[in-house]
Amino acid sequence: MKRMRTGMKIVLFAAILVMLFQFAVSAAPVYETPYPTFFYNSDDDAVASKAGYEPIATISGTDLGTAEMSYPTDMYVSPDKELYILDNSNNRILVLNSDYELVREIAFTNNGEPMEIGKPDRAASYSSGIFVDEEEILIADPVQNVVHIFDLEGRLKAQITKPTNSAVIADNFNFIPCKVIKDNAGIIYVLSYNCYQGLLQFDQSYNFIGFYGADSVTATAEVILRQWLQDILPDTASDRLGRDVAVNYLSVDIDSEDFVYAVKYETSIIPDTGQIKKLNPLGNNIFEASDGKAVTFGIRNQYWDDADGFIVSRITDVVYDDLGFITVIDAFQNRVYQYDEETNLMFVFGGANSNQQGNFFNPVAIESIGEDIIVLDGGRNNITVFRRTEFGALFHEGINLINDGMYSESKAIWQEILKNDSMNPLANSGYGKALLDEGNYEEAMYYLKLGDNREDYSVALDSVRSDVMSSIFPVIMVVIILAILAYFIVPRILRKYRKNEYEKKVSKWKYPFHLMAHPINGYTDLKFEKKGSLLVANIILLCFFIVSIIVQQSTGYLFNDNDLESFNIVFTFLASVGIFAFFVVAQWAVSVLMDGEGTFKEIWIFTAYALLPYVLLMIPITLLSNVMTLDQSAFLTMANIIAYAWTGLGILLSTREAHQFSMLKTIVLLFLTVVGMFFVILIIGIVYSMLARLAGFITQIYTELSLR
Amino acid sequence: MNKRKLLFKILVFAVVLCLNLNLVVAFADPDTSSSSSSSTSSGTSSSTSSSSSGSTETDGTTDGEQTDDEQQPPEDINYELVASNSNLEMYFDSTLCYVRIVDKSTGNEWVSSPDYSHTLSGGETTMYNVGSLIHYSYFNESDNTVNTNIRRGSVNDGNFTIAEIDNGLKITFTTSQQFVIPIELKLEDDSFSAAIIVNEITEPEDSDYRLAQISLLPYFGAVGPDEEGYAVVPDGSGAIIEFNQASARTYSYSQRIYGSDFGQEIKTQSSVTMDARLPIFGINKEGAGMLAVIDESPASASVNCNIVGESNRVNNAYFSYVHRTYDTVYINEATWQQQTSRVVDEDPISPDRFEVKYYFLEDDSSDYVGMANRYQQYLIEELGVVPQVEANESKLYIEFLGGVKRIKNILGFPVNTDIAITSFEDVTNISSELNAAGITDLSVILTNWTDGTTDFTIPYKFKPESSLGGKSGFRNMLSSLNSLGIEIFPDVNLTDLRNNTWSYKAKRDVIQSLGNAPITLYPFDLSTYYPIETYDPIYLLRADKMVELAQDVYENSSDYEFTGLSAYTLGQRMYSSFGKNPVGRSESEQYYKDALDILSQDAKMLFSNPNAYVFLYASDITDVPLRSSQYGMETQDIPLYQIAMHGLINYSTESLNAFYDQTYYKLKAIETGSDIKYTLGAQNFDQLQNTEYEYYNYIDYSAWKDTIIETYNEVSAVNSRVSDAKIIGHEYLTDDVVRTTYDNGISVVVNYSDSNYSIGGISVDASDYVVLED
């Protein structure tokens, strides 16, 4: 557990929070381009920023002095920087030089006879692909189900067809080549549409070797839930959920070191992560965020619109560009996203479906020549050339220096970028790293926090604290923990041999503390001697609420995942006291059915008393989180586990005593309580939906009446 | 981040669950199950869409879309001279309703319907289209738009009358839909004027047909497929649309004059477009030039241009008078289902008259520079604009962002707090520092400085915000700047309202849509293109409140000694109000002018990228754009706006620090004769995060100081030599080298390319410029 979760969080409030806090941006920023350019701030809100790329030309067939292109489907840049555009429906390849002038057109021949390649329909969910190297042109043809291998003059050399004599290829396997690449060793990788085993590998003599880069499905809770929902939902709704099968690729690219960049094929409209995989020669994905989670490519603040559904990204092509960055195209919102090797988002450019320059209709492929990014628009039959701006160049330089560990050299660059984009997280993080490198820790912390770079912030914090403090800190921790344990456990052990607990008088104010130390006998007393007090319980509950606020707002930056700005006391109240009440009501309802003895008041008091360990322990833990670095997070994790376990044990024992159940029955009861809470949420959802329909109906009548 | 992702996924499941519930219901009720998707609404929004939406029809009474290219018999045209003066002659064919103007000085002829119309492809449809003095569109019984032309609607049946008026004719058409549309054509001293007499338009009472738009002289100056020419449109800085483009992907351009109407709701906003701020267009046909200016009711118009391609057989440019609009109303059927329905404005508030003046240019000034200069002459002679510029002056404009509102947590309760970005003291300090560095022609604009403007409170009290220094701070600032000779323009935002005050309330005083609901403005999420509805909406104050408000501001501001006032939004935001007590768009323009009459009594006025109606009141204009929307058919951006303003009103670029490439924009300022502007702040920049002003991430004065001084010194060295001169030439020597010529003999050659350029033995370095003198 790296960061603390604050108290109990539950689905409904979470959902409401997400709906209410789609924060950010601008009334009327000025842009240099005919589309907005932006970056995501540390809250994933889009903020206007300066352009890293700008559109410099839109080039059609007529502009090149030849016939218009007709559904061009793919393009590739040859090693000598010529752009090969597969003008599919015209059965030709256009070759452009790096000044975007037509060098030649290639027609296809087979033994001197003209030949036709397959022409996929615009409506089909696959299209053809092209790859070019020094000696040959490879074309993946999904209509004729072959990969054509031409020489650079368009003369057919060979064809790769469906492998027949292989144990791993079933007879009913559909070989529908859509994209093709070749690595330095001459191995050909073919992407076959709807193939879940990965890419097909062929050796230099076109023999099938095996599959590459398949992705497995892990049975996470989410996958199981999805499967379950698919079973119970009508088809139309379950289609929206997508299918949980192994991944199926849509497009691929390869870099000079034979790393393969593959785009996952999205069958669903559900927002997704990890859409781009960087596969090493073993076929394993090495694109993962530092915390092991999949990286979200494309749009980050996904949005639900009543009329248009989910606003998400549909990434269709990727290029490992000449500058060493990963640039992808999103065909849902027609935008280009550029990432560095660490998958940090640097620039977003291009725009949706207007007739202005730099906006596309149906972007199908992306390539790069030098500093330029080229987008092929299969709908408008043209290419748009984006050129890196001065700002883009500066930013790239800074990123490259940081990724190479040359922090101090990058300082002046980040300073210049911050002058222009003072809130850019990467720039703040970069500048902070440079300051950290030169030993300016306090200032570094300010920028690293703005850049939301917790790892380096932790390092800076560590340096700011005195070395002595740092070295004795673990010792202090151990002492504190031992002292706490000793305070509670030692007297208990001693007393056990001394006196009968039942006779001991403990005031109602001290009783909750007594309970903490004696959970097993204590709750029995509570039950039979009526030592519980509603007043005390409610005071504990109030403390619980206050502690929830403190935990949420005052946990140290390194361990605090909450948006401190959006803190709202009402939500915190609902998420602490509200959940508590919810739990008590559900438990009472279930216990009545299970013949439990506990009254509502008892359950309320018992459960409140059980919260005391949490209330007491979380305050020192929260204080400690402000002086601890990530290296010492194990202490916090341990302390947290103690607090939660202690509380959990209290709840378990108090429930057992309240209802006088066996342990097994208690566990069943608690399980059913949680299920009960889930059902209540479901019912609230249904009621909400029905009320919303009713409200919609009334508004509709009102609107129609008012328009008469 | 990860938490949000998780929560989002949970939301997804919740949504799917509820969808499921809806779908279950929908099975029993098939009507509601169809999902609708619709993006933007609004009947006359700016666009260059080539395909019409499903609800627009052409009047296909006989032929529908003609595919036959058979040639039509030549028409028998009999022009008769109906008016003439020392400059122009006007001829008219009273059967076909064709008009022909002869410019006596150049001998150029301009006809409403080219003689070759019968030889064009497209058969009779094309011939009637091209041969029509006006086109009109109307809403039919199912609220769909039908486009048709007057030949088919009236002229062919002879349903029109012609009456003589002074120097011209009045033609009254009665169309087959029983609309009566009177048109006046007449000669004035140096122009030809065409007008729609709007207050005499009648529509049948017993019919469902309602008039939508009238296109005036759509083929006047049209350029045929075999001819050469281009149109000049006022998109942003201005743009050229080359005619007969081979590689165009779109063939139609249309923009609302003064920007799209805020009274029509916008659902999503994706691309960044510029607005048509000037009510003009120009045509250059085979070397002959013409400028069209809307003389009356420009706010009710749109400017259009078509080039040959798709269904267009001729290149043309024209104004349309927008009589009636529609809006799309979204009806929530259920939480996750929306239906749309069209609402037509039943009782539009119309101007009395819509008039366009056509000026014919000398052959040596028939390009866009000549057009811009002719417009400047129009502004001086017809509108009475007095030149505001001084010789040997080059201004530096600094806009200071005063304060912002930020939600802070106080004991867990969200509290709106004022954060000072630039206090009044900061303004004084920064201004005096720049002044001390030798920048004497300094003009300071102060935004977000009145009590509550940080949260859009109508500033009728003219009360300085206390967190910036309050009244005394404001007074001190004014007197310090006055003593240094620095002009200050405090900005008053008179249109945007979020917080109610006693005098101006959101419920009562704001504009409404056709659906009778108040218009709400939200910032748009750049990433999703949808409005961010977590902010409270901004409403727009009704234009008929503006005069009273201006009077309040004028009276309350008399407590302070200042000489300038800025009114950014009044120059930019043009809107109608529909719903109850509607206010028409042209009516709004008049209210604005009345308000400006009051505000400008004792103060110089400054505007930001304003519409043309402010020119009579403006001494300074900032943020004049340096590019157009760059629609696919626009072949070249031109500084049309700048040429029209140069030597007349002081103007500046947009804030240069909003851009990265300082060299490029410095050159751009020199090329277009623009003064330069920066937006600055002094403190608390990290507090801008998660506010509506988050995009001001480039305004740290301390970081920009040196750049500003350096750039200003360079730009002013050139601009001060030409500040009161007119631009008489602007030509592209190559794609990347531009020469601007002034009427005082100075010309500037700017080289944007990466290599040297040499002109007349003088070399211009890469990314540099030279000033040449005769």
Give me a quick take on this structure:
Chain A is of the alpha+beta class and 708 residues long. Chain A contains 17 helices and 31 strands.
SSE layout and pairing:
The complex is a heterodimer of chains A (708) and B (774).
Chain A: H1 11-20, E1 38-40, E2 46-48, E3 53-60, E4 74-77, E5 83-87, E6 92-96, E7 102-107, E8 109-110, E9 113-114, E10 129-132, E11 136-141, E12 146-151, E13 156-160, E14 177-182, E15 188-192, E16 199-202, E17 208-212, H2 221-232, H3 235-239, E18 249-254, E19 260-264, E20 276-279, E21 303-305, E22 309-311, E23 315-320, E24 326-330, E25 335-339, E26 345-349, E27 351-352, E28 359-360, E29 363-369, E30 372-377, E31 382-388, H4 390-403, H5 407-420, H6 425-437, H7 441-450, H8 454-464, H9 467-496, H10 511-517, H11 519-528, H12 534-554, H13 569-593, H14 600-610, H15 612-625, H16 633-659, H17 663-707
Parallel strand pairs in A: 27-28
Antiparallel strand pairs in A: 1-2, 3-31, 4-5, 5-6, 6-7, 8-9, 10-11, 11-12, 12-13, 14-15, 15-16, 16-17, 18-19, 19-20, 21-22, 23-24, 24-25, 25-26, 29-30, 30-31
Chain B: H1 2-28, E1 56-58, E2 80-84, E3 88-93, E4 98-103, E5 109-111, H2 123-130, E6 134-139, E7 145-149, H3 150-153, E8 160-165, E9 168-174, E10 180-187, E11 191-196, E12 210-216, E13 229-233, E14 239-242, E15 252-256, E16 280-285, E17 288-296, E18 301-306, E19 316-322, E20 326-334, E21 337-344, E22 354-360, H4 368-381, E23 396-401, E24 403-410, E25 413-420, H5 424-436, E26 442-447, H6 470-484, E27 487-490, E28 496-497, H7 506-509, E29 539-540, H8 546-557, E30 564-566, H9 568-572, H10 585-599, E31 604-608, E32 618-622, E33 636-637, H11 640-645, E34 650-655, H12 662-671, E35 675-680, H13 701-719, E36 727-732, E37 737-742, E38 746-751, E39 757-759, E40 762-764, E41 768-773
Parallel strand pairs in B: 1-7, 23-26, 23-35, 26-27, 30-31, 31-32, 32-34, 34-35
Antiparallel strand pairs in B: 2-3, 3-4, 4-5, 6-7, 6-12, 8-9, 9-10, 10-11, 11-22, 12-19, 13-14, 13-16, 14-33, 15-18, 16-17, 17-22, 18-19, 20-21, 24-25, 28-29, 36-37, 37-38, 38-41, 39-40
Helix pairs in contact in B: 5-6, 8-10, 12-13
